[in-house]
Amino acid sequence: MASTMTVQVPIKLLSRNPGDSYSHDLQLYQNVPFGNITLEELQEICETRLKVLSLVERIHLQKLTMSVSQRRVALVEELHKQGIDEFARLINSSGCKSLTYMDIRARRRDHISHFMLRSTVAFNEYKKRWFFKQEARLFKWRFSSLNNEGIRQFMCINNFDFTLISQNEKENIREHLQMSSPNVSDVDNTKFYRVPFFYIANLIRKRKVFIMQGEAFVPEQEMAFVFVTHFRRILLSSFGVAREARANLYNDERFTRIFAYLENYIHIQSTVLVQEQEIQQYISLDQLDKLAETSYPLCMRVLHKALRKNHHLTHGGRVQYCLFLKGMGLSLSDTITFWKDEFTKIMDDTAFKEHKYTIRFIFGQEGSRRDYQPYTCLRILESTIGPRDYHGCPFKRMLHDILEDELTDCGFNALERSAIMKLSKDGQYSAACNKYYEIKHDCFDDNLFKHPNIYFNESMKHRTSNHSGEIYLILYVLNSLLFCINFKITLKLKIQKQEMRINHQNQNI
């Protein structure tokens, strides 16, 4: 018989009737789930949710130019391909049209899997951050599928007291609404909700709403932002309780085994600093030009090339490239020497001192002495780029003719350039970078890179393994030649001994 668990509710629910507890397809996960579930089903639904969250991350990186709704559609299509139909239906739901047994079962499994994974990642900062980002994105995508009735019921179920303003109120503040809502073209046919200002700090910061007497007047198309912000706040504050819940199960081997399995299931790159000694031996100042040609991702190759040509980079480029060099494993002293050699070609040593401080700061030797990590691909994609800047993602920021010239400089032929350019034009920047890697290394790799230093590490492993193979082949050939030479020498000696023996016998006769 399968093992079962009972989840107790630490707070009083209005009803133990599942139909009342799970009356909507979208949840804020504020109440702890209750009831019985087998350990096998618990592990299965958590694995499924991790697959969903991994797809959310992948689609987010691949479809940066798509709207939220388009990303949701892409996610649903992928889930159907993988046979995860139950979650696909939840994600594509317009609200709460039905309360069948299958509906309630899907909502309950959604609820339990979220809570279990929340406790799984609670003690690991990197995995917690990853879980937080993907869950927030998933919530936002799911909210985009709700219709007006679904949104109204969601607010009612979760006690959101956001009221629509009347037509008279709208007339009185029409001018203010028009000025403060740049995305609203027709104020008359747009509904505005009255929302306490503390719910929408970011909207206020971006000057997208009108504020009066502590209340914001939010257009209906911006309401998703209100609920996503609220969900993030709930999720962020819940990790303390999640840690406590996991700690309370520490002595239960059934749960510790599942927690350990699920935690290992989440593959997060917590650090990208080079650890492998066989890679480290190839990284030195005099090798940077060669490495930029063979193993740098295009974003870092462009920065290195610009630095060598202009002997200068703007602040964003300096930080992005300096962190990358740190991630490669270049020492602080070598990094300072590298930048000094370039910068002092157009400035004196005194002017370089300020840049030297920045380098030491990045390496954690000045200021707050934090261990700054190299930028991820997502961070680079979201960089603000000016006209004199070379940083950021070239597949996103470069004009197409300039990008094509850059690819030509890399040695790519017309067909290869066309394949990369098409992905870039379609907004599939990560896929374009992946195609760049495949062509550079004459291999196939369907794993999208999430970090420039991971790209570099994989490139070095690929090239050093090929190099080792070539050395092995040379040694094998040399050994074979030596064997042949030794064999011939031995054979010749044996023949000579045989001839001497025959001559000796003839002399005796």
From TrEMBL:
DNA primase large subunit C-terminal domain location: 289-456
CDD domains xrefs: PriL_PriS_Eukaryotic
GO terms classed as biological process: DNA replication initiation; DNA replication, synthesis of primer
GO molecular function: 4 iron, 4 sulfur cluster binding; DNA binding; metal ion binding
InterPro entries: DNA_primase_C (IPR058560), DNA_primase_lsu_euk (IPR016558), DNA_primase_lsu_euk/arc (IPR007238)
Cofactor(s) required for function per UniProt: [4Fe-4S] cluster
Transmembrane portions of the chain: 471-491
GO cellular component: alpha DNA polymerase:primase complex
Entry keyword set: 4Fe-4S, DNA replication, DNA-binding, Iron, Iron-sulfur, Membrane, Metal-binding, Primosome, Transmembrane, Transmembrane helix
Pfam families: DNA_primase_lrg, DNA_primase_lrg_N
Gene3D superfamilies in alphabetical order: 1.20.930.80
Family as reported in the entry's similarity comment: Belongs to the eukaryotic-type primase large subunit family.
Protein name: DNA primase large subunit
